[in-house]
Amino acid sequence: MKILIADDDPQILRALRITLTARGYEIITAEDGTAALNAATTHRPDLYLLDLGMPGLDGRQVIEGLRGWTDAPILVVSGRAGSTDKVEALDAGADDYVTKPFAIDELLARIRALTRRVPGAEAEPTVRFGDIVVDLAAKQVTKQTAGASPATVRLTPTEWQVLELLIRNAGKLVTRQMLLTEIWGPTHVTDTGYLRLYIAQLRKKLEPEPATPRHLLTEAGMGYRFQL
């Protein structure tokens, strides 16, 4: 189980890293919100422990950024005890909230409760839209036309990454920044031309009418959405 801990207090980072490592967790640490998002896209943790009062991007902004592409549990560990802070964090997408100072036994119990919700080794889904079938486990796309054998639709590795990220967030807006960071890295967050190119190529291969897409939709000025 991989846990990302983001907190600007080095003593808390050190204490939690030692405590959780001793209990068999793999720990990644970050000292500010930007570093937390970068570590998240690099390491893909199973669970997040986030402080709210971090420099740069605060905890709420990190939660909102994470929720653009991952459903992994988020436990806020913060010195802010006010109900407004708790409500804002939970509304942004956090799953639970612990106030500092905390008892380590309580924190461990909260982590156990959240990790019970992390999916195990379940079969990856197969997604069907129109005459297209996407097998997420096999990383394969086929086109099934009536009266004909299924034909493989060949995607480049980058086209697959774009498609998979959109499908795994079906029905949700995936921002351009999140796609660019996840696929090309944080130094390419302004390279929106990459996305337009790959989205156009995917539409040509997968949409019945690429000029009027039904499934790979553009959210003007924001990003893209996959719709069944």
Protein model, in words:
- The protein is an alpha/beta fold and 228 residues long.
- It has 2 domains: 2-115, Response regulator (Rossmann fold, 3-Layer(aba) Sandwich), CATH 3.40.50; 126-226, Arc Repressor Mutant, subunit A.
- It has 8 helices and 12 strands.
- The strands form 3 sheets. The protein has a 5-stranded parallel β-sheet, sandwiched between helices.
- Helix 6 crosses helix 8 (192-206).
- The model has no long low-confidence stretch (mean pLDDT 88).
In short:
The modification 4-aspartylphosphate is found at residue 51. This protein has helices at residues 10-22, 33-43, 59-66, 83-92, 104-115, 157-168, 176-184, 192-206, and strands spanning 2-6, 26-30, 47-50, 74-78, 96-99, 126-129, 132-135, 140-143, 151-152, 173-175, 216-219, 223-226.
List the helices and strands and how they pair.
Layout: E1 2-6, H1 10-22, E2 26-30, H2 33-43, E3 47-50, H3 59-66, E4 74-78, H4 83-92, E5 96-99, H5 104-115, E6 126-129, E7 132-135, E8 140-143, E9 151-152, H6 157-168, E10 173-175, H7 176-184, H8 192-206, E11 216-219, E12 223-226
Parallel strand pairs: 1-2, 1-3, 3-4, 4-5
Antiparallel strand pairs: 6-7, 7-8, 8-9, 10-12, 11-12
Helix pairs in contact: 2-3, 6-8
